[in-house]
Amino acid sequence: MRATGSTATHSASIGTDRAAGLSPGRSDLSRSPTMGRDHEDSLAVVVYREDGVWQSAVLPERLADDLDGLVAVLRQQPAENGSIGLVNVADEFFVAVRVRGDDVRLLLSDVTAAVAWDLARQVVDRLGLEPPGDDDLEDVWPAGDLSIFSDLGVDEVEMGAVLSDLDAYADEMLGAVAGRLGFAEVYDRALEAAAH
């Protein structure tokens, strides 16, 4: 998200038909009067620990604009401490989802994305928030649970620091989060798998 105002070893692919990498750049959200389909320029990755080892997999493209479907898939992972879904939508914003049993925690990097993008709107609705109005589109601010990864060593302050980098795209923010959480290597492998 470029704003004008706000260890281990296994990587796999879960039914993905994505053959191309991410498209760089940022569109003007205020130009889009209707919701867009997110999955064409997006990437969803699941990360989880199994037998003490971080694992990752690329998720089907359709989950990039289907929050309920994403949560359902995350619940199916054989995770020791819940599973993590990271969705980069067109390098504009990201959504992090943490599923541990019945507990679902959400973080949206830029609430203004709800004006133009399906997945962001679904997250805002699930959080019970009002979508931003026209006067709110100049600033970028996150929505949801900034403490989503506190038990894994990234507290609200550190997450806030990642999200406050106004020059960072969504992929850069997610890379920073993956590095802080200790699964950068397997996350990068999933990105490489999606690009081929």
- Give the N-to-C terminal Cα separation: 24 Å
Q: Strand fraction band?
A: 15-25%
Q: What class do helices, strands and sheet pairing give?
A: alpha+beta
Tally the beta strands.
7
Order of helices and strands: EEEHEEEHEHHH
CA-atom Rg in angstroms: 15 Å
Give the mean pLDDT: 81
Stretches with pLDDT under 50, minimum 5 residues:
1-34
Integer count of domains = 1
Coarse shape: globular
How many helices does DSSP assign? 5
Helicity range: 25-40%
Largest β-sheet summary:
7 strands, mixed
Q: Which strand order spans the largest sheet, edge to edge or round the barrel? A: 1-3-2-4-5-6-7
Summarize the structure.
This protein is of the alpha+beta class.
Write up this protein.
By secondary structure, this protein is α+β, with helices and mostly antiparallel strands. It has one domain (10-16, 37-194). The chain is built from five helices and seven strands; from the N terminus they run E-E-E-H-E-E-E-H-E-H-H-H. The protein has helices at residues 67-75, 118-127, 156-163, 170-181, 184-194, and strands at residues 10-13, 42-50, 53-58, 83-89, 93-100, 103-108, 143-144. It has a seven-stranded mixed beta sheet with strand order 1-3-2-4-5-6-7, with helices on both faces. The two termini are 24 Å apart. Mean pLDDT is 81; it is low at 1-34.
